[in-house]
Every structure is written in C-alpha cells, then in structure tokens.
C-alpha cells in the first residue's frame, strides 16, 4: 500500500510543531509500517525551504524511506480541473495549484494521502483515501 505524504506532515515533524508534531510522526510511522511512503517534486520543493543545503534535505528525506516519484501528466490535467472548479466556486487564492497537484497525484495513482489539511482534498478529490486527524485544520 502506497501513501503520498503531504508537505504539512513533514514540516510538522521537521519544525517540531507543538500542536501537530506528535500526530504527524505517529501517522507517518503507521503509513510506513503499512507500505511505501511517496513524495513528489512539489512536496520536495515545499519542504526544501526549511533546509540550507540539498544534502541536508536529502538526509531528512532519504530515498531509502521515501519513494521519489515524478508527477504523472494525468495528475496535471486533474489538478488543473480541480483548481478551475475551486476558482469558479469563489476560491480566492491565486496559487494553491500545488495542493491540487498533490491531491491529483494521489488520486490518479490510487495512493492514500497522509495530510492534516483534509477539507480541500475531500471536496475536490472525493475518491481519495485520506489519513487525516479528526477536526484537523482546513486549507483556506
């Protein structure tokens, strides 16, 4: 079983977030025990802002623990459609496409998605299996 790991879960752990680090670490460990952990270039890029050197980032996200996958073109199409729907429904953010791409990647590959920001994923990718905390924060 493969699980795509959302950026927020990794950043919770790397920043030792006082509210979410424990939940994120436990959920990541459980997903690892259940199968393969997957990241993509978007997650890698978003996490990189916390690291000064690529070597430090690669140590934090070792290829032996995280399967690094390219983004499928079909995920790009689905992400664009989901983003367009978001904008039509009044979504104000001009650049949340990365979140849609992460959800679309998980959806087209039939991966579970480990995230603590589940509301947008539930709305725009209803077939996704989400691993998320109950009552977790929502993405704006």
From TrEMBL:
Q: What is this protein called?
A: DNA-binding protein
Say if the entry is tagged with keyword Hydrolase. yes
Please name the GO terms that the record assigns under molecular function. Answer: DNA binding; hydrolase activity; metal ion binding; nuclease activity
Family, according to the entry, reads as follows:
Belongs to the PINc/VapC protein family.
Q: Which PANTHER family match?
A: RIBONUCLEASE VAPC2
Q: What is the species of this protein?
A: Micromonospora maris
Instruction: Quote the Pfam families the UniProt record gives.
Output: PIN (PF01850)
Superkingdom, natural source: Bacteria
Keywords associated with the record:
DNA-binding, Hydrolase, Magnesium, Metal-binding, Nuclease, Toxin-antitoxin system
Name the needed cofactors.
Mg(2+)
| Database matches in InterPro entries | PIN-like_dom_sf, PIN_dom, Type_II_TA_system_RNase
List each copy of the PIN domain by range: 4-124
């Amino acid at each position: 079983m493969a699980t795509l790991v959302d950026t927020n879960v990794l950043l919770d752990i790397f920043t030792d977030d006082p509210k979410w680090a424990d939940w994120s670490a436990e959920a990541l460990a459980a997903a690892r025990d259940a199968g393969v952990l997957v990241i993509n270039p978007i997650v890698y890029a978003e996490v990189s802002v916390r690291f000064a050197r690529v070597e430090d980032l690669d140590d934090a996200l070792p290829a032996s623990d995280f399967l690094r996958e390219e983004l499928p073109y079909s995920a790009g199409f689905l992400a664009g459609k989901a983003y367009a729907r978001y904008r039509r429904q009044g979504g104000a953010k001009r650049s949340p496409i990365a979140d849609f791409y992460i959800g679309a990647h998980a959806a087209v590959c039939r991966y579970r998605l480990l995230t603590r920001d589940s509301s947008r994923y539930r709305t725009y990718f209803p077939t996704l299996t989400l691993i998320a905390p109950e009552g977790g924060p929502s993405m704006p």
